[in-house]
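Q: What residues go here?
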């Protein structure tokens, strides 16, 4: 039996606070990041007819070009307001809502069991649920429980109040120390940050971009894609874009 997803209106990383930020910043401050993320999403073509999106909020960072390719899109979203907004914002999408909490004990196994033939998209949620204590266990669970699925994720790598020195994107196909990646965006000096313990979440290539969530809060985002061995390469691949 799966653990039901909790329902809420307020949350540190979602709910009404996030809707207010989206209303205020999405049209200008987030624009470049949303365009980059849309290109990544639209370059991802999992051969499935159903998509499960974990933590989409109201879809402020989701691409309609991705969603409309699927016959059905299932949302795992605890925010009641977001559940009401999603069908209004994406009227051409056939939405359904489910209550599986995939981050509860056994949740990833339940997700894989309930949706064996679906593609899965983690919408900037893994970095909110991972910390130093659970990082290894969660990485292993994601790789083991979802090995047979096509799945993708964008997630926080680090967040900081310091403005980046360069606004760019990066694609890595080899392991580098996190400090080497950060040096591409922030040059020298102290960089006080929150480490979300998601760097190199999957093996293989990954892509990176900056998300200025607010004028004083900057996030480095990682995008990576996994394809099961039977459908292609056995390691994770990042879509070109």
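A:
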């Amino acid at each position: 039996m799966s653990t039901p997803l909790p329902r809420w209106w307020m949350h540190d990383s979602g709910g009404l606070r996030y809707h207010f930020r989206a209303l205020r910043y999405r049209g200008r401050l987030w624009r470049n990041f949303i365009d980059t993320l849309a290109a990544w999403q639209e370059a991802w073509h999992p051969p499935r007819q159903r998509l499960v999106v974990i933590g989409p909020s109201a879809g402020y960072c989701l691409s309609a070009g991705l969603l409309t390719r699927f016959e059905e899109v299932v949302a795992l979203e605890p925010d009641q307001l977001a559940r009401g907004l999603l069908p209004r914002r994406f009227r051409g999408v056939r939405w359904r809502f489910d209550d599986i909490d995939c981050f509860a004990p056994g949740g990833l196994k339940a997700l894989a069991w309930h949706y064996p033939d679906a593609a899965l998209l983690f919408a900037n949620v893994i970095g909110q649920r991972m910390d130093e204590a659970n990082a290894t266990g969660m990485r292993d669970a994601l790789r083991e429980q979802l090995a047979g699925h096509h799945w993708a994720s964008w997630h926080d790598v680090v967040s900081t109040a310091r403005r980046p020195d360069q606004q760019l994107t990066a694609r890595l196909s080899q392991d580098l120390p996190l400090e080497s990646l950060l040096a591409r965006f922030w040059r020298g000096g102290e960089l006080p940050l929150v480490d979300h313990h998601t760097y190199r979440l999957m093996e293989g290539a990954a892509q990176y971009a900056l998300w200025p969530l607010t004028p004083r809060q900057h996030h480095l985002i990682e995008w990576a894609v996994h394809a099961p061995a039977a459908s292609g390469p056995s390691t994770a691949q990042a879509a070109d874009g």
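A: Context that may help when evaluating the design: The chain has one domain: 10-231. Confidence is low (pLDDT under 50) at residues 7-11, 231-241.
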